[in-house]
Design goal:
It is found in: Endoplasmic reticulum. The protein is an all-beta fold. It has one helix spanning 103-107, and strands spanning 10-14, 23-28, 42-47, 59-64, 71-75, 88-92, 98-102, 113-117, 124-129, 136-141, 146-150, 181-186, 193-198, 206-210, 219-221.
Amino acid sequence: MKVKEAERTANAAWSPAPLPDLMLAAGTAAQQLDATFSSSARLEIFGLGLGDSTLEMPVLASVETPSRFHCISWGAHGLSTGSRPAGMIVGGSDGGKIALYDARKLLDGQPALLETTSRHTGAVRSLDFNPFQANLLASGASDSELYIWDLNSPSTPMTPGAKAQPAEDVSAVTWNRQMKCKVVAWHPEVATQLVLASEDDHTPAIQLWDLRFATAPLKTLQRHQK
C-alpha cells in the first residue's frame, strides 16, 4: 500500500536514527532526465507528514546545488557533540566531487554547504557513514577507487588498499553493521587471520576472520552473556 510519494528524479537517504523526526533527503539524480527535461539540481528534505491523509510529502528544505548527485547519505556526524544537531548530508557527483552539507542549517534556510572535495578522479557513485563512528565516511567511485574519510579532517582520506583489477566503477559501499569491535588480535601463526571481540552487551560474540575469505567469519562464538 502506498503511504506517501514525492515526484522527483532523485537519489534519497533517510535521516539518522537518533533524530526524533523521520525525514528523507533527496538530491537530483545525475545522468537522468525528468518529465520537464530540466537541467537544474537541488537538494531537498522531506517530512513524512504521516498525520496527513494525502500522499504528498511536505518539503521542509530545498536548496539549489552546483551538481547533480549519483548518491547521497545522511549521517549522525556532529549529533553527539551538538555541533550539527541534525547531522550531515553528503552527496557524490561527477568529477570526483563530494559535497558536505549541515542538515540543520539546510532546514533553517541558512547557507548549508560546508565543504566540497574532489579527491576522487571519477564519478562518486556510493557513500556510507560508519554506524558506530559517525565521523567516518566510506566513498566509492570510478576506476575502483575507495576512500575512508575522517570528517573531522576531510582533507586527508585513507585508502583501504590497492585498487581492484581490472578497474571498475564502485557502485555500492557499506560498513559492517553486525558487530562493534572492542578488541582485535592477529593470529600468532597465520598472517591472514585475526579475532574480533564485540563490546555490544546485546549481541556479545567473538569472531575469527581470514582476510583471504573476508565475505564471512570462519567461526563465531556466542556463549558469553555480556
